[in-house]
Amino acid sequence: MNLVTNNKWIGQRTIRPDGMDKVTGRAQFAADTTMPGQIWGKVLRSPHPHARIRSIDTSKAEKLPGVKAVVTSKDIVDFPIEKGAVMLGIQDMRWMCRNVMARDKALFPGHPVAAVAATTEAIAAEACKLIEVDYEVLPWAIEIDDALKSDAPILHEFNKFDGKPSNIVGRLEHKKGDIEQGFKKADIVIERTFTTRPVHQGYIEPHACLISVAPDGKTTIWSSSQGQFMVRAMTAYLTGIPQSDIRAIPAEIGGGFGGKTIVYLEPLATLLAKKSGRPVKMVMTREEVMRATGPTSGSKSTVKIGATKDGRIVAAHGTFYLQAGAFPGSPIRGAAGCSLTPYDIPNLLSEGYDVCSNRSKVAAYRAPGAPIGAYAVECVLDEVAEALKMDPLDFRLKNAAKEGTKAAHGPVFPRIGYIETVEAAKASPHYAAPLGDGHGKLRGRGTASGFWFNAGGESSAQVNITEDGNVVVTTGHPDIGGSRAGIANICAELLGIDYRRVSVIIGDTQTVGFSNLTGGSRVLFASAMVVTQSTEKIIQTLRERAAKIWEIDPEAVKWENGAAHPVSPNAGQFEPLTLEELAEKAPAMGGPIGAGVQLNTQGADGGFGTHVCDVEIDVDLGIARVIRYTAVQDVGRAIHPGYVEGQLQGGVAQGIGWALNEEYIYTKEGKVDNPGFLDYRMPVCSDLPMIDCIMVEIPNPKHPQGVKGVGEVPLVPVMAAVANAIYNALGKRFYALPMSPPKVLEKLEGPMQQAAE
Amino acid sequence: MAKVHVTTSINGEPMEFLCEPSDTMLDALRGPLALTGSKEGCASGDCGACSITVDDRLVCSCLMLAVESEGHEIRTIEGLAQGEKLHPLQQKFLEMAALQCGICTSGMLVASDALLKKNPDPSEEEVRFWLAGNLCRCTGYDKIVRAVMETAAEMRAQ
């Protein structure tokens, strides 16, 4: 392990390099960009949850003055189902080409059917109304139970499960030991079924892009996404334009949380721009975002856990049905692969089922699948602990995974920090504090743990020394939550210079090497590796340059505090040569100083967290309120503690929303009934308490700075922690999310009311 | 449809622009006035990303017609700093990592500034309720509330 010690910048709360632009309104988000000659694109969307498209007549729309181009599925490259999967990352182009524009069938209300570009947004919207679509309306299914009925309408007739046409489009399992034998050894077995509703990532910035296609096909895309290379590749696949002709420029991204890891508008805008010869801008409305993007799955899970009297878990069985929406791809891997992973369980079966239904195709959402699985598992664990009369954290400690534990999804754990998170939660002032008087409101405390895989993968960086001796770092990952600050800290630390001398730029697809998505909690892990190696190459160059000037061996030069020094007086007596001096001498001493590195990074350790939550319940109104929250997480190494805490706090806030209020509500016509922020009730400032963070730092030995991904774990335990706290307050358990006021009131009616009478 | 001529003041500068009668103030700011610091998150007054002040009153610019700015004093995020000198709130947001993706930040700052003008010594609860109209999906609000409280304390001390 080569950890930097006595850090000057790593671990400091530096001011982020892009901060000034963001507090002054200068930062350019996708919808802020304009271009000469720009026109506007709008999408016509299906009003039906399920309908065969018999024909589309666009002639009236095309004749409307101001309309410049119309596209339908005919214009998009088709990836025929029968030819097999065409994978790009985790996305299959067969589904992507049908998701960006309905082909044969519309599969959810909001499914794009055609797109128009016109000189104004209003004309484009008017033209959409003139497009005549002949639909054959079909029966539909939105909820899992409806989609799984024997007579359910089948979304994709080609799909078979158990030899029959089915909406189950995928299954995976993780297995360890023998669960039947395991349950036989158990003194106590608890089995429960849980449901969760689909929730949206809820980024504040709607999807937007501006695209220009020159007559020779050279295409420039400005868009908001979690990966400009993903945008380039998917747009190329779906439009037929070669990737080398597409320059995807990453705009600042206004939140994503996984929801901006696929394209919606870019292929349509590219085709409209190509057809019209004009740059095309497209911006979704909030309603379009809610109806036709994201969300994550709704779910139905059954979890059975068996333990012996002494508190050892001997067997566990989890079955997780997740809604994929219109196309295959729900995060069953996260649900089935993460939820039991914090524990050392000898006999285990964890199954995931991917179920299609007539809702928008799900997109990743922060540790996709894992929070859904953890909600079920961590609630049952609490029940088992209670039955055993054990403290819930002691029960978790007794069964905790540690170094050498073989996880059900394959790996044998290296040194991990799960136990430390439980111990830190137990030792926290929060866990020791009395719940206090609720003044008529009921109070309760709950805990839960969570795990996320974390990821490495492809990353590229270029580090260049400027002529005045400062540094420009270019990486290929959109900065979604402060990664530029972490990169600046690392580069400044390695070079031994003030971090303000390091400028961090997100390169576009044609200026920096391939870099995979900002996703999987991978960005600082991976970019730190390529930036470190690039910087080390530069330091080697700087040592060689100094050696040449001093006419000594490069091995006799060390780099320290931003300057070359002789390693010892024996190497010769020379005044240090600073970075500025070496940059100034560069033209005469071998030319520009820069280095780039591309890697497929490996060694991302999984992340663990343990949370403590206090709630207060207003029994008259049914409102459950989180009044205190502590998130403990093994973060590996906090390169910028401020933004690590920010990840923890933000994840917790999202989880509280998921637990207490957020859900998609449908009309009886099968349409989303709450497609705006007013009715899709995300937590606002006055809904939340301060969120305390305890960062446990067990450095990742496979990373130069010890980094582990931090962004996703914080959402994983939250719904279970809130549910366990509500149980503690009420003595009644919820098996369905969200635990919104009407549902809490329902629970309170009956025994609680009788008690009051 | 004929465009309407509007004479107003934006961030202390006299300003004239043309707009459709149905355009919102946010449309005018982001369109003819090229002030894109105000963001559109919802167009329904629920997210606060487009917050401005009109004669010192906090308003969602997506809920106001552009023609209504005639003769009034508009302030946007672009007017918060004085030249090179950041407003203390902007400085504190940077120092305390009170932003992540940054899309809500303009609105948060305009709203926080309006609060501190009205009440230089707000309690945490007052800050939380005042900012309840400004959605942030990244931060969990913790650092934003702390930054506003700390700025208020420093401004009172001066």
Automatic annotation (TrEMBL), chain A:
Pfam families: Ald_Xan_dh_C (PF01315), MoCoBD_1 (PF02738), MoCoBD_2 (PF20256)
Family annotation (InterPro entries): Ald_Oxase/Xan_DH_a/b, Ald_Oxase/Xan_DH_a/b_sf, Ald_Oxase/xanthine_DH-like, AldOxase/xan_DH_MoCoBD1, AldOxase/xan_DH_MoCoBD2, AldOxase/xan_DH_Mopterin-bd_sf
Highest taxon listed in the record's lineage: Bacteria
Aldehyde oxidase/xanthine dehydrogenase a/b hammerhead domain residues: 24-139
Organism: Bradyrhizobium icense
This protein's name: Oxidoreductase
Coiled coil ranges: none
Molecular function terms from GO: iron ion binding; oxidoreductase activity
Alphabetical UniProt keywords: Molybdenum, Oxidoreductase
Oxidoreductase listed as a keyword: yes
Automatic annotation (TrEMBL), chain B:
Keyword Iron attached: yes
An example molecular function term from Gene Ontology annotations: 2 iron, 2 sulfur cluster binding
InterPro entries named in the record: 2Fe-2S-bd, 2Fe-2S-bd_dom_sf, 2Fe-2S_ferredoxin-like_sf, 2Fe-2S_ferredoxin-type, 2Fe2S_fd_BS, Beta-grasp_dom_sf, Diverse_Oxidoreductases
Domain 2Fe-2S ferredoxin-type: 4-80
SUPFAM superfamilies: 2Fe-2S ferredoxin-like, CO dehydrogenase ISP C-domain like
Keyword tRNA-binding in annotation: no
Source domain of life: Bacteria
Keywords (A to Z) from UniProt: 2Fe-2S, Iron, Iron-sulfur, Metal-binding, Oxidoreductase
Record-given protein name: Ferredoxin
Lineage, highest ranks first: Bacteria, Pseudomonadati, Pseudomonadota, Alphaproteobacteria, Hyphomicrobiales
